[in-house]
Design goal:
Blueprint (H helix, E strand, L loop, with lengths): L12 H10 L3 E6 L6 E5 L1 H21 L2 E6 L5 H16 L3 E7 L9 H14 L3 E10 L2 E8 L1 H13 L43 H19 L1
């Protein structure tokens, strides 16, 4: 085979080597089991470089997809639930399967239906992004479910990457328009001026000495009469 992939035909080995040297290329045996063996004129260094790049890309793709795990408790608060759901979405976006585990402790084993409600809620919240591969099942003190990204979601991600978007756009939910009555303006507050209440007049301080003087006069008059 020639450097451009054309069929040269059956030639002597020394002739094939001569043709390769004239083009400053290499003669590489690509099918030694064939009769006669098949060789190709090529740049072997470039061939090895391109092959290594392809193998490296293949390894990257294999390392991206795998099985991730996220754990919930049956009495999880809304904030923690939203955080863990975000982790699941991130795993799905990376092309991973997700193992969702509900952990029960002590008396919680008597209410395993709470764990099933969390799993059902998670699947409903993820919607078309997810496919349930393994339905919820009880294994000891854990309830386990396995989900994976749906084919439709993977196609949306691929299109988003081609456009350079970070994430596929979710369809906007249409909310009915509701007419709200205009709020009445609050009535102005009227502040009445405060009226000062006159304080009670205090007794005049001079009255006491007058009475004392009167008593002193009466006593003096009595002594003189005596």
């Amino acid at each position: 085979m020639g450097a451009d992939g054309s069929q040269i035909g059956v030639v002597d080995t020394r002739e094939a080597i001569r043709q390769a040297r004239e083009l400053d290329l290499d003669l590489v045996e690509v099918a030694p089991q064939a009769t006669p063996p098949v060789c190709r004129i090529m740049d072997y260094g470039k061939f090895k470089y391109e092959r290594d790049i392809r193998q490296k890309d293949a390894r990257k793709k294999q390392s991206r997809s795998g099985l991730k795990e996220i754990k919930f408790r049956p009495k999880i608060d809304p904030h923690d639930y939203a955080t863990k759901k975000g982790h699941v979405e991130r795993f799905l976006k990376g092309g991973n399967k997700v193992k969702v585990t509900i952990m029960f402790r002590g008396r919680e084993m008597a209410h395993t239906e709470l764990g099933r409600k969390i799993l059902d809620r998670l699947v409903a919240d993820l919607g078309e992004k997810v496919v349930v591969e393994s339905m919820p099942k009880q294994e000891g003190r854990n309830m386990i479910m396995v989900v994976s990204p749906s084919k439709k979601y993977q196609e949306q991600l691929a299109k988003a990457r081609e456009r350079g978007d970070a994430e596929p756009e979710a369809p906007a939910a249409q909310t009915p328009e509701v007419e709200t009555p205009e709020a009445e303006a609050p009535a102005a507050e009227v502040h009445e001026p405060e009226t000062e209440v006159p304080a009670e007049a205090e007794p005049v301080a001079d009255e006491a000495p007058v009475e004392a003087e009167a008593e002193a006069v009466d006593v003096t008059a009595a002594e003189n009469e005596g």
